[in-house]
Amino acid sequence: MKKLSFLFLLICFLVVGCVQEQRPSDLLDEIKLKDRINVGIKTDSRPFGFLRNGEITGFDADIAYEISKKIFMSDFRGHVKFIPLKPSERISALNTGKVDIVIATLSVNERRKDIIDFSRPYFVAGQAIMVPRYSRISSISQLNNKPVAIVLGTTGEKTLRLLAPNANAVGTLTYKEAFELLKQNKVDAILADDSLLYGLLLETRGYKILPARYTEEYYAVGIKKGEDTKNLRKMVNLTIKSLEQSGKLNKIKNKWIPHFTMK
Description:
Radius of gyration: 23 Å
Number of strands: 15
Number of helices: 10
Mean pLDDT: 90
Order of helices and strands: HHEEEEHEHEHEEEEHEHEHEEEHH
């Protein structure tokens, strides 16, 4: 009886040990164990993240696939699961574990750096103004006392308050909604990153982007803060650095934004 009890305890010990060995030690291990990386992305931000024939594609999607290749040593795109997010949802989705990383035209700034970690930047944009082609507006100061669309959860509102404090900021959840307001003459302008405004111009004629740029927006991959995400951040940084050094990052830029003036 004692021998049986001893054998039972030994088997339990070995089983528990095996289970513990399978338990991921950090987020990168967890991603490898589940054989999938959950990526937060936008689907209304052509050419960075948008729907084409029912599939999510774009600049940010390509960056996600490159990170997946580095993690899984495989070209299989099924390792990536895209989770659509609105701009206002990006930070909370990271911190609640809904996504493993965010690649969604996420600009680096000091306020966000207090809440999440960032990879090295993979793109530089600048905030600009879009107006109807025959609009008389030529500068941001002329937006005072006028309705201006900005997307909630972006840095556009801060820029508008700083440079046109008397403008009437009209918040929307998506860039598509902001563009609809402009097309319906419910706002006189949109203030957003030039790269995203360029994507809107690809869809509809009759609008223009004013030449001035009011900020430098460094897009980077968002990663949750913590000891358990350090290895993932290193992996993401290695991927972006490798893309830069090989020239592939410029190829991705030229693929999606061929006429855009890079900084």
